[in-house]
Amino acid sequence: MSYAITLIPGDGIGPEITEQTVRVLEATGINFTWEEELAGVAAVEATGTPLPDATVTSIRRTRLALKGPLTTPVGTGFRSVNVGLRKEFELYANVRPARTIVPGGRFENVDIVLVRENLEGLYIGVEHFVAVGNDPRAVGESLAIVTRAGCERIVRYAFEYAVRHGRRKVTIVHKANILKMVSGLFLEVGRAVAKEFEGRVSANDMIVDNTAMQLVMRPEQFDVMVTTNMFGDILSDEVSGLVGGLGLAPGANIGTGAAIFEAVHGSAPDIAGKGVANPSAQMLAAAMMLDHIGELDAARRLRAAIEDVIVRANLRTRDLGGSATTAEFGAAVAQRVA
Which residues pair with 4 in a beta bridge? Predict the structure, then answer.
C-alpha cells in the first residue's frame, strides 16, 4: 500500500528536521507519496499568504499531513496558520503524548497522553470591548463557548483512544466548582461517557488547579487526560516539561476532515541552517501518523529506534547534551528502523 501525505517542511529548523523525518519514514519500507506544500513565512515569501490554497487543497485530498514548525508573521494582519488549519479541517482533538526517554531527570516513568478539545472554549475567539464613559476599551470580554456535542466528541475520543492503545485510565480535567456551566457541562458529559466504558477503562475527574499540582508531585498517577481547550493548552506544555521539554514533544490534530501531525516546538530561527536541531519530536509525530494509518509495527520500530539512539547509543543533539548533528541523528535512527 502507498500513502499520499501532504508534507509541509515549515520555517526555521522545519526543513532540516522534516528532511530527516522523511528519511526515517522511508527507511520503514512503507511507500509514501509526498505532496510538498508551503505554509507560514515560507509561504508568505513565495505566495503572499501564510496558508496558500494549494496547501489546503492538498490536505483535503490526502487527509493526512506531516507539518514542520511554522512562524506566523508578526504585525502583518495574518492569522495563525495552526488556527486556520484547525478550523478549515475541524481538527477537534489535539493529542499530546509525553513519555520519559532520557534517563536521569526528575521523573523516570512518565507516560501520559493529554487529549485537548481544540475548537471551543475561550479560544473560540468571541470577544469584544465594552465602553465605559469616554474609554471605548474600558472592559474586555471573552466568551467561553462549550457545546454538549463538542464535549461528547472529545471525551469519547479520549476513551476510545485509551481502549485502542491499551491504556488503563482517563482523567477528566475541569473547573466545574467555579465555572458551573461551561466546565460543569464538560464534567457532566464526561461522566456520562465514562459510564459507557466501565469495565474497559477506569475514570476519575480532577479540578484543573489540583491537576497542575499533582502532575509535578505524582505524575505516575495519570495515564490519559482529557480537558477543554485552554486548560489543555496549558497542561500539555506542563506535561512536556516533565519529560525534558518540547524538544521531545510530538502532537497530532485529529479532525473530521483530516489529521495533521507535527512537532509542537517552535521554528527556532536562531539555530536554523546550523545542522544542530533535534528532529526527535518530528519523528515521534511521524510515529503517531503511522499509528493513525494502522502501520503499528512501523510506529513501534520508529519509537524504539529513537530511544535506542538517544539512550543506548548515547547519540544526542546539542539540546540533549550531545554533539550529534541533525543529519547524524537521522542516519542513526534510519539505520535502526530499516
Answer: 33
At residue 77, what is the residue type? G
Distance CA 148, CA 210 (A): 24
Structural domain includes residue 251? no
CA dihedral 180, 183, 184, 190 (to 10 degrees): -170
- CATH of residue 216: 3.40.718.10
Residue 51 shares a structural domain with residue 119: no
pTM above 0.90?
yes
- Nearest Cα to Cα of residue 173 among 191, 161, 157: 191
- For position 76, what pLDDT does the model report? 57
Gap between the Cα atoms of 97 and 86, Å rounded:
19
Mean pLDDT of 279-300: 97
Asked if 80 and 157 sit in the same domain, the reply is: no
- pLDDT, tens digit, for every residue of 3-51? 999 999 999 999 999 999 999 999 999 999 999 999 999 999 999 999 9
Report the alpha-carbon angle 152-156-160, nearest 5.
175
Band the pLDDT of 75: cuts 50, 70, 90.
low
The reply to whether 280 falls in a domain is yes
Q: Which residues are catalytic?
A: 123, 175, 209, 233, 237
DSSP notation for 77-140: -PPPHHHHHHHHTT--EEEEEEE--STTSS-S--EEEEEEE-SSEEEEEEEEEEEETTEEEEEE
Domain that residue 203 falls in: 102-229
Query: Are the CB atoms for 259 and 289 separated by under 8 Å?
Result: yes
Mean per-residue pLDDT for 234-246?
93
